[in-house]
Design brief:
The protein is α/β, with parallel strands linked by helices. Helix content is 43%, strand content 15%. It folds into two domains: 238 residues, Glycoside hydrolase/deacetylase (TIM Barrel, Alpha-Beta Barrel); 64 residues.
């Protein structure tokens, strides 16, 4: 007998019961507050919807806590009803220019996890640079480029499928090999990646420092490595370098210590968890859906990815876990 599939809300509620959440909390995961013309990974929530999210959560009676306070409350079994935290990954400029004014107006704290390499190099994140190359104009029928030091041939009849195939090939490469592959595609296409687009750029070092100064007490900044690699693809020493270097660079730019971390792509293994702890971080987030229950694993905190949807839809998802 084949049972009917549960809807998303029912599945989230069932996951919460399996986790034993007597009074669950939710950590929301955003990336961007923007509405660009191209968003192949659905990283963007429009400013209108983000404002709607904040209002709907408040109307629902959510208690929005800083991430550190939420984790401490869960550990001490004193989570308030309908507790949640807000986080952003990567360090896009729109976190400052679009998200922060709305967070500030709502007095809603948030944690922003920052990958420092693209900021210091003044370049787009590699997946955005790839989107710019492959989805930003006409393509030849057949495209050849060097990926990981090997010549690869790609058929281009379906550009979105091409983008995902190339993304998959690049995602497990070390950062220097990713940049080399982007250079190979740019050369084959006769296009220069150039300066970051205003619609896709990361924060600048100056903006990050200004952001930290203006938002003190409302925004926490956290580590997200230097170059946003998939950590388990690196040897233990490489993982430690990415984690520690990202922490050091971020602290230098914002002028304060950082205590929270987010694993790029949510990917982690025992070496990465140990390196995060040894670097002095006190907590770390994954990208796994679900809630935060009592006595959480501080270095494997679950988060709920938030798509671009109306506020009432978000409340339905969150309430399934917080029930």
């Amino acid at each position: 007998m084949r049972l009917p599939k549960l809807g998303l809300t029912a599945r989230l509620r069932a996951a919460g019961h399996r986790l034993g959440l007597r009074r669950g909390a939710v950590v929301l995961m955003y990336h961007r507050v923007a509405a660009p013309g191209s968003d192949p990974w659905d990283l963007c929530v429009s400013p209108t919807h983000f404002q709607d999210h904040l209002g709907a959560l408040r109307d629902w009676g959510a208690t929005i806590l800083p991430l550190a306070e939420l984790v401490a409350a869960a550990e001490q079994q004193r989570l308030p009803k309908r507790a949640l935290a807000i986080t952003f990954d990567d360090g896009y400029a729109d976190n400052y220019h679009a998200a922060f004014p709305l967070l500030e107006r709502s007095d809603a704290p948030a944690t922003i996890f920052v990958a420092t390499g693209p900021i210091l190099a003044s370049r787009e994140f590699w997946w955005d640079a790839l989107e710019r190359l492959l989805l930003g104009g006409a393509l030849p029928a057949r495209l050849q480029a060097a990926v990981g030091g090997q010549a690869r041939v790609w058929m281009t009849a379906d550009p979105p499928a091409l983008y995902r195939q190339v993304w998959a090939a690049l995602s497990d490469l070390p950062p220097n090999a990713q940049q080399a592959a982007l250079g190979s595609f740019a050369m084959e296409l006769g296009r220069a990646v150039g300066r970051p687009r205003e619609t896709h750029r990361p924060l600048t070092p100056a903006e990050l420092g200004e952001f930290a100064g203006r938002s003190r007490g409302l925004i926490e900044f956290g580590g997200h490595t230097a170059d946003h690699p998939r950590l388990p693809t690196l040897p233990p020493a490489g993982q430690r370098d990415q984690i520690q270097r990202g922490k050091d660079e971020l602290e230098a730019m914002i002028g304060m210590r950082v205590h929270s971390f987010s694993y790029p792509f949510g990917a982690h293994d025992g070496h990465g968890v140990a390196a995060v702890r040894d670097a002095g971080f006190l907590r770390a987030c994954t990208t796994s859906g679900g809630g935060v229950g009592h006595r959480p694993d501080h270095f494997r905190l679950a988060r709920l990815p938030v798509p671009d949807m109306p506020g009432d839809a978000l409340v339905r998802q969150v309430s399934a876990i917080c029930a």
